[in-house]
Amino acid sequence: MLVELFVDTGAGPSASRVLMQTAHSLLWAITIRASSRVRSGSLLWW
After folding, report:
1. How many other CB atoms are there within 10 angstroms of residue 21's CB atom?
2. Of 18, 33, 23, 29, which Cα lies nearest the Cα of 2?
3. What is the pTM of this model?
4. Is residue 2 classed exposed, middle or buried when 0-12, 13-18 and 19+ CB atoms within 10 A define those classes?
5. What is the pLDDT along the chain (46 residues), one digit of tens a residue?
């Protein structure tokens, strides 16, 4: 992912690294929740 690449190349303070990892996991949680919601919605439509 782009975020992981930025974290690896940046190698800055641990605070920014933790912040990036948190943003990354939040993005994944939002994506998974949205995909499951769309899946259940499509099931309801059918």
Report:
1. 13
2. 23
3. 0.49
4. exposed
5. 455 545 555 555 677 888 888 999 999 998 888 888 777 776 665 5
